[in-house]
C-alpha cells in the first residue's frame, strides 16, 4: 500500500510520533487516464489520476483527489510508479504492509488538481458511456454548492481497464450501478472506470441513488435527503396500465380508438412499441431492475386504488351530464363555470366525446400533469433542505465557498467544457435614494453614463421603498433624456405634458367624437378590461360612493368610459382610478390610430399607473415607450420562432421532445412574451422583472432568455411526465405564481452568457477551419494525402447553424 507524506524529510525518525501521524497519507485507490476538459478542444484535455486517500489519525479522514500527470512527473519516475503500482493491485486490504511514502504534489490553481474530504461531498452526477458519449463522466457537487471539474474516464487508455488478467470478464453484462455488497478480496469486474470508483467509494461512504434523477448519487445522505430521494415514483406507463385494466376502456369509452391505451397482454409480436410509454425507458429501468417484478402486491394495490378513483370520477361526470342535458337546466347553463359548461353545448346536447378528445387523455387528462407538478414540488423541497443543511454545516477549508442561486445547472452538452459563466446579479442590495442622488450634479446633469445606470439596474434592481421607481423608470424607458441638465429636462417634459393634453382633448368633452360608433366600441373594450385588471391593488380595489353628483346631470359623463350606464351593473364596480386608467388607454387609442387598443394593454398600463402615483401624463408616456418593447401579431410570431431556434441550439433534447408532442408552436409561452410575464409573477416581482427587461443591458430580447430559463428549470418534469401538447400547456399555465424570480433571472443571465460564448466559439472554429483549409492548399505539395485528410477530418466538428434571428439576440440598444 502506498502512503503519501507532505514533509520532505528522508528520515522518519526526525519527526515526533504525533507529527509523523499527521503527515501520513495512505493511497487506497488509483486510476489512470482520468481527464479534465477545461475547454471544448481535445488538445486542451488534461490527463491525470483519480485517487482515494486516507489520512492516518485517531479519526481517519478519507479524501477523493484528482492529480494531473504533469504534477506527478515533476516528482520523478518513482512517484509515478507508486501510483501505477496501486492501480495494478487486485487487493482491497488497507493494512498492506508494503507501504511506500511519497510527497504530496503541490497543488496549483491552473492545474485543476483537487483533494476534498468525502464528508464535504454532497452528491455525484454519474453518466455511464453511451453511443453518443464515448467516455463516461462523474461530476462532483460539494455541500457548499460549488462544483469540482467533471472527470472523464478514458477506459480505452487506462491501465486498470486494459489488463487482460484482471478483466477477463469485462464483456459480461452487469447491472448499473454495481451491487452494494461488501467488497471481496479481489477487485470486482466493472463495466467502466466510473463504476469501479463508485464500488470503492461504497467501502468508505454511503451512496444513495436518487429515485428522482437516476444519475444522481447522494453521499452520506441526511434524513431529509432520504425522504426526498427515496420517494416512490409512478411508472412511465402506470396511467395507461390502469386505463387498460378498466372495463370502461372498451366498448363505451369516448376516447377515440387511436388514443386508447394498449392492453397489458396479447400484444402482437410485430406491433410497434408505444412511443409515449416505452417499457424500456430510463425511469422504468431505474425503478425496477430486471429481477424485480412490476406486478407486486403493492403495485396492484396502488393501481386498484387509482382505478376506484377513476370510477368515481367517471360516474360523477356522467351524472352531471345527465342533469345538465335536461331541458330545465338550460337557463342555468350560461351561469356555470367554464369547466362545467364545457360538458354541454348551447342546445343541451352531449359534447362528452369532443371534450375528451380536446382534453387529450380522457378521464386521466390531468394525471401526468399532477405527477409532474408533484415531482417538481418534491425536487424543490429537497433543494431547499439541502441549502438549509449546507448553511448549517461549516464549509471545507480546502474549497473556496461560492454562493450561487443556480445549484446544479447543466447548460449544453456541446459546450460543457467551456468555462462556466457566473451571474452578476445582486438583488439583495438594490439602488436606493442615496445612491441615486450621488449620480447627479447640483444642476441635475448625471455623473455616470447611461450604460452604467442600466447595468446597475440590471444587477441590483430598484428599492421598492419610497417613490424611487417613479424617478428611475422614465429614464430607463427613455421618457426623460439622460445627459442633460435638470432645467433642460423639465422644459422637455412640459412639452410632453402639453402634447398629452392636446391628444386627450380630441375626445374628452367632445360628444360627437366620444359617442361615435367606432369610439363606443373601443370604450367598451377598454372599460371591460380595466374593470378586471389588478383589482387587488389599493388604487383599484375601491368603488364609487353613491353621491348626488353621480346622476345624469353630474360631471361623470365624460370621465366614465363605459358606453352605457347600464353596463356598469353587469360588471365589477369602477372608481376614479379605473376611469383614469381607461382614459389613458383611450388617449393612446387616438395617439396610435394604426394599432389602437389591443387586449392586454391594461395589464401593462396598470402597474405603470400604480408606480407613477396616478400621474396621468407620466403613465401615458411611459406606456408609449413600453410599446417599443412589444410586437404586433407578426412580431410575436418572430419572437416565438426565435425562441424555438434558441431551444434547438441550447437544449436539443427538449427541442426533440417538443417536436414529438407537437409543441414547437410554443403556445404555452405566448402569454409570457405578450404581456411580459405579468400573470406569472406576483405584482411586486413583476415590477422587479420589468425594470430588468427594460434596461436592454445584455439583449433587446432578454425576455426570451427568461422564458428559456423557466423551461430549463422544468425540463426534467416535461421530458419525464408530459407526453401530450395539452399536458405541457396545462402544466406551464399552472406555473403562474409559483416561479421564483431571482433564481430565474440568474439562470437567464447564465443562459445568455453561455449562448454568447457558444456563438463566439462557433465563429472561432469556423475561422480556424477556413484558415486551415487555405493553409492545407498551400502546403499540399509538401504533405502526404493521408496526413492532410486526417487533419481535415479532425477539424470538422458538428456545429449548430445560427440564423440571423439568433444572432440578433446579441444586439442591445433600441
TrEMBL record:
MF terms (GO), sorted A to Z: GTPase activator activity
Q: List residues of the Rab-GAP TBC domain.
A: 463-697
Q: What is the lineage of its organism?
A: Eukaryota, Fungi, Dikarya, Basidiomycota, Agaricomycotina
Q: Which Pfam families match?
A: RabGAP-TBC (PF00566)
Q: What is this protein called?
A: GTPase-activating protein gyp7
* Species in which this protein is naturally found: Suillus subaureus
Checking InterPro entries in the record gives: Rab-GAP-TBC_dom, Rab-GAP_TBC_sf
Q: Where is the segment annotated Disordered?
A: 163-193, 247-273
Low complexity compositional bias, start-end = 172-191
Keyword set, alphabetical order: GTPase activation
Q: Which domain of life is it from?
A: Eukaryota
Amino acid at each position: 500500500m502506498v502512503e503519501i507524506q507532505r514533509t520532505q524529510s528522508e528520515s522518519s525518525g526526525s519527526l515526533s510520533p504525533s507529527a509523523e501521524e499527521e503527515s501520513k497519507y495512505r493511497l487506497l485507490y488509483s486510476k489512470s487516464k482520468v481527464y479534465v476538459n477545461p475547454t471544448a478542444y481535445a488538445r486542451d484535455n488534461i490527463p491525470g489520476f483519480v485517487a482515494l486517500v486516507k489520512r492516518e489519525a485517531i479519526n481517519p479522514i478519507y479524501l477523493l483527489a484528482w492529480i494531473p500527470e504533469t504534477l506527478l512527473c515533476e516528482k520523478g519516475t518513482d512517484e509515478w510508479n507508486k501510483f501505477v503500482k496501486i492501480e495494478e493491485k487486485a487487493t482491497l486490504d488497507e493494512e498492506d504492509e508494503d507501504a511506500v511514502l511519497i510527497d504530496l504534489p503541490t497543488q496549483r490553481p491552473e492545474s485543476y488538481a483537487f483533494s476534498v474530504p468525502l464528508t464535504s461531498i454532497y452528491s455525484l452526477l454519474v453518466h455511464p458511456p453511451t453511443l453518443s458519449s464515448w467516455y463516461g463522466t462523474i461530476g462532483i457537487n460539494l455541500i457548499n454548492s460549488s462544483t469540482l471539474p467533471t472527470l472523464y474516464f478514458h477506459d480505452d487508455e487506462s491501465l486498470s481497464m486494459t489488463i487482460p488478467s484482471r478483466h477477463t470478464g469485462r464483456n459480461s453484462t452487469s447491472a448499473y450501478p454495481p451491487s452494494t455488497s461488501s467488497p471481496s478480496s479481489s477487485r470486482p469486474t466493472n463495466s467502466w472506470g466510473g463504476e469501479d470508483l463508485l464500488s470503492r467509494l461504497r467501502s468508505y461512504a454511503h451512496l444513495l441513488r436518487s429515485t428522482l434523477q437516476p444519475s444522481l448519487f447522494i453521499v452520506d445522505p441526511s434524513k431529509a435527503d432520504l425522504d426526498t430521494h427515496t420517494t416512490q415514483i409512478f411508472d412511465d406507463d402506470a396511467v395507461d396500465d390502469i386505463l387498460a385494466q378498466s372495463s370502461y376502456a372498451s366498448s363505451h369509452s369516448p376516447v377515440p380508438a387511436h388514443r386508447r391505451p394498449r392492453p397489458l397482454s396479447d400484444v402482437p409480436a410485430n406491433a410497434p412499441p408505444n412511443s409515449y410509454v416505452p417499457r424500456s425507458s430510463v425511469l422504468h429501468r431505474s425503478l425496477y431492475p430486471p429481477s424485480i417484478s412490476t406486478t407486486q402486491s403493492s403495485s396492484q394495490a396502488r393501481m386498484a386504488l387509482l382505478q376506484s378513483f377513476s370510477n368515481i370520477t367517471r360516474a360523477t361526470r356522467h351524472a352531471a351530464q345527465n342533469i345538465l342535458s335536461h331541458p330545465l337546466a338550460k337557463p342555468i347553463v350560461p351561469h356555470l363555470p367554464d369547466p362545467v359548461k364545457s360538458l354541454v353545448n348551447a342546445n343541451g346536447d352531449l359534447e362528452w366525446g369532443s371534450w375528451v378528445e380536446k382534453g387529450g387523455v380522457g378521464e386521466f387528462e390531468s394525471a401526468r400533469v399532477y405527477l409532474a407538478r408533484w415531482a417538481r414540488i418534491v425536487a424543490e423541497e429537497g433543494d431547499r433542505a439541502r441549502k438549509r443543511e449546507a448553511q448549517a454545516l461549516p464549509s471545507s477549508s480546502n474549497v473556496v465557498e461560492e454562493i450561487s442561486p443556480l445549484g446544479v445547472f447543466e447548460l449544453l452538452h456541446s459546450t460543457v467544457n467551456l468555462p462556466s459563466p457566473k451571474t452578476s446579479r445582486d438583488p439583495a442590495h438594490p439602488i436606493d435614494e442615496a445612491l441615486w442622488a450621488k449620480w447627479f450634479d447640483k444642476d441635475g446633469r448625471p455623473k455616470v453614463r447611461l450604460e452604467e445606470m442600466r447595468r446597475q439596474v440590471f444587477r441590483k434592481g430598484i428599492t421598492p421603498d419610497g417613490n424611487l421607481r417613479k424617478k428611475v423608470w422614465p429614464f430607463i424607458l427613455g421618457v426623460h433624456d439622460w445627459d442633460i441638465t435638470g432645467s433642460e429636462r423639465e422644459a422637455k417634459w412640459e412639452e410632453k405634458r402639453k402634447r398629452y393634453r392636446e391628444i386627450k382633448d380630441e375626445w374628452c368633452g367632445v360628444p360627437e367624437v366620444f359617442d361615435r360608433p367606432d369610439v363606443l366600441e373601443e370604450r367598451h373594450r377598454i372599460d371591460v378590461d380595466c374593470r378586471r385588471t389588478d383589482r387587488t391593488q389599493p388604487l383599484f380595489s375601491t368603488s364609487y360612493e353613491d353621491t348626488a353628483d353621480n346622476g345624469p346631470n353630474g360631471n361623470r359623463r365624460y370621465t366614465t368610459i363605459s358606453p352605457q350606464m347600464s353596463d356598469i351593473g353587469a360588471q365589477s364596480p369602477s372608481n376614479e382610478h379605473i376611469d383614469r386608467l381607461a382614459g389613458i388607454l383611450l388617449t393612446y387609442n387616438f395617439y396610435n390610430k394604426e394599432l389602437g387598443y389591443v387586449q392586454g394593454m391594461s395589464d401593462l398600463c396598470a402597474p405603470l399607473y400604480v408606480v407613477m402615483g396616478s400621474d396621468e401624463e407620466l403613465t401615458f408616456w411611459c406606456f408609449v415607450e413600453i410599446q417599443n418593447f412589444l410586437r404586433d401579431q407578426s412580431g410575436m410570431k418572430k419572437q416565438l420562432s426565435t425562441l424555438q431556434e434558441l431551444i434547438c441550439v441550447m437544449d436539443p433534447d427538449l427541442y426533440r421532445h417538443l417536436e414529438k408532442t407537437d409543441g414547437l408552436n410554443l403556445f404555452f409561452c405566448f402569454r409570457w412574451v405578450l404581456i411580459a410575464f405579468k400573470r406569472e409573477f406576483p405584482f411586486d416581482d413583476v415590477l422587479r422583472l420589468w425594470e430588468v427587461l427594460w434596461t436592454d443591458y445584455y439583449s433587446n430580447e432578454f425576455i426570451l432568455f427568461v422564458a428559456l430559463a423557466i423551461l430549463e428549470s422544468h425540463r426534467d418534469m416535461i421530458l419525464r411526465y408530459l407526453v401530450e401538447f395539452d399536458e405541457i400547456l396545462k402544466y406551464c399555465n399552472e406555473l403562474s405564481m409559483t416561479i421564483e424570480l431571482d433564481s430565474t433571472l440568474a439562470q437567464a443571465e447564465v443562459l445568455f452568457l453561455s449562448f454568447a460564448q457558444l456563438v463566439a466559439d462557433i465563429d472561432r472554429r469556423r475561422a480556424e477551419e477556413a484558415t486551415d483549409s487555405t493553409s492545407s492548399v498551400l502546403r499540399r505539395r509538401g504533405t502526404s494525402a493521408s496526413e492532410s485528410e486526417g487533419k481535415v477530418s479532425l477539424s470538422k466538428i458538428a456545429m449548430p447553424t445560427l440564423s440571423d434571428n439568433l444572432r440578433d439576440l446579441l444586439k442591445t440598444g433600441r
